[in-house]
Amino acid sequence: MEPLTPSRLRAELAEALGEPLDDLTDDDDLFAYGLDSMTFMSLVERWRRQGVEASYVALAERPTIASWSTMLAG
To answer: What is the pLDDT of residues 45-58, one digit of tens each?
Structure first.
């Protein structure tokens, strides 16, 4: 599976949010784009099944592609 790079995160989030890929930037607040708790939990669970260590709390505290990319890169 491809690592959770900023571009992969942007693509997955754009699809989940129904937003054009080019509209999301690395520093946008994803909750301001309408990321709801169900979609958020679904994405995190999918990444966990792929072997990515992901903390709901840490991701929710910094809901940007840049932050998530850093946290999920390991």
So the answer is: 999 998 899 999 99
